[in-house]
Amino acid sequence: MSFKEDVGTGLSENPKYLSSRYFYDAEGDKIFQAIMKMPEYYLTNAEFEIFSTQAEQILSELDVNGRKFDLVEFGAGDGFKTRILIERLIEAGANFRYIPIDISENVLNTLKSDFQKRFPDLEILAENAEYFEALESINRKSENPKVILFLGSSIGNFLEDRTVRFLNALYAVLNVGDFTLIGFDLKKNPKTILEAYNDKQGITKAFNLNLLKRINRELEADFDLEAFDHYPYYDPETGFAKSYIVSLKKQTVNIKGLKKQFVFDAGEAIHTEISRKYGINQIETLFENANFNVSKHFFDCKHYYVDTLAKK
Ligand code: AVJ
């Protein structure tokens, strides 16, 4: 489905929703980079710490013994989180090709030229594709052993059903002995979690409302950004952090590109994102149900976050 169709569908439903995949246009990419630098957004620092201090342990678990492998990354983005891992793997003498996959061609080109400068001897095969599409092409790429990276808690954006489908599909395309390393954000003090999505400077608010800006720009709509607010919410029982855009008054928005008007009640919410938080047992159950064997959990020092390595 296209942006246009998805916006039309989501805003016609009751309750209204928009998919978080549309956050990442050129401006959204930039705001997300600012989010990763915020002190409240502990996820990035935690994963950075894990890769800075434990890359050798990760490599030794992979058991590649100098054999060439493919490091395939889903949702690579600008490569910020992976840079340190790649650097440490090269230092430790690992022999691998890097295959970054992302839906944003823009961000992939930036990543490619940046990594080619930093790691001149690294072979990079970038692929512009959506997750499930990319899964299908994985085994056509090579016979090499594979390590699939899905970092940054991106898996937290999936609902249960999509998470299970993703892991099953991943299992199906891998060979016995291949690995996956997936980043999960862990349950913790709910206040810490809520703050990560509710920074005082309003960067996360700008990230969320950028969706309306994008609709204004690409679909010729007339959303008044002043008449909407950002509302983050965390439910410690389910581990679901959810973000909403809330209409501050009763208003009608015209989306020319859809030839349609949408009415918002005062206080009406549009659901825009889910960022799921996990317990370790839930993570183990997820992998076990998909037939993976969990090799090891790599935690940051605060145990806020985990990169779990699992083997087919
Ligand atoms: C990139 C999907 C992992 O859900 O934590 C950050 C996106 N949204 N602040 C997350 C995000 C609001 C982020 N992921």
UniProtKB/TrEMBL annotation:
EC number: 2.1.1.44
One GO term (biological process): methylation
Pfam entry (one): Methyltransf_33
Keywords: Methyltransferase, Transferase
KW Transferase (keyword) present: yes
Keyword Iron: no
MF term (GO), any: L-histidine N(alpha)-methyltransferase activity
Domain Histidine-specific methyltransferase SAM-dependent: start-end pairs: 3-311
InterPro entries, per database record: EgtD (IPR035094), EgtD_Methyltrsf_superfamily (IPR051128), MeTrfase_dom (IPR019257), MeTrfase_EgtD-like (IPR017804), SAM-dependent_MTases_sf (IPR029063)
Domain of life: Bacteria
PANTHER family: ERGOTHIONEINE BIOSYNTHESIS PROTEIN 1
UniProt protein name: L-histidine N(Alpha)-methyltransferase
Naturally occurring in which organism (per UniProt): Cryomorpha ignava
